[in-house]
Amino acid sequence: MQPKMNWTFMSLQILDDVRRGKLTFAEMFPRARAAGFVAYDASDSDAEFAPREEVLRLCAENGLQIADYIHWVHLTTPDDAAFRAAVESGCRAARTALAHGTDKLMIVENVVPEDLARMSREQAAARLAQGLKRIVSAAAEYGVTVMVEDFPSPLLPMCDSAEMRALLDGAPGLKLVLDTGNMLARKEDPVAFAERFLGDFVHVHLKDIEYPENAATGDVDVDGRRMWNAQHGEGVVDFAKLLPMIEKTGYKGFVTVEYGPHEGTRDHFAKMAESIRYLEGLL
User: pTM higher than 0.70, yes or no?
Assistant: First the structure.
């Protein structure tokens, strides 16, 4: 049966299992295909386990497209030389994305609290906009679209809708990866956030959120509560409203099913297959 959306998987939450020897990097790809995925979110992290040629081979052998390439930078630094190096790294990543067969580059900002403490929130926002504007311009020469997501840290000025709108306006051509859980770090409703950006996102991360008691890991919201990725449909995100709203826009891009396993969680790919079945049932 043809999937109702272009489901893609992100290995970042699975790589700890690879490091612990629970499965190999290569084993992820057939298991992802069997779970219902049609594409893969490639990233800088792949290089720890396989060269680009091997990643491309594993995707091709398992009928998976490359949805996008994820690259980390650190733009919110008061150090001018470090800032320039981060911009140059982001510009080079446009060519890396193309070498992976995708014209979508997702830039992720590294959170360094010590640097952010040395800057005002306005200065950090200006650094982000300035750096991303340069990366967008360089990537455009290669036909690559640059994306950022609403970020799950109140420390960065790219979590709520007002700050994200200012960032997109400050870097013309920059596009949004709509993450359905990250804005909760600033206590913003996911449905209301998505409504404000219906024409701006070119990739979607579907994430549900729960707030476990006594958690020692996970993102932290503005009130200091730990946020975990929940099984889709078991957390606080209203997918019954979100998914039909996204579908009605005519969106045909990739949709990442994002779930982070926790200690004691059973098979990750079985959980994601359950999520796909649940999400498709809402369409």
Answer: yes
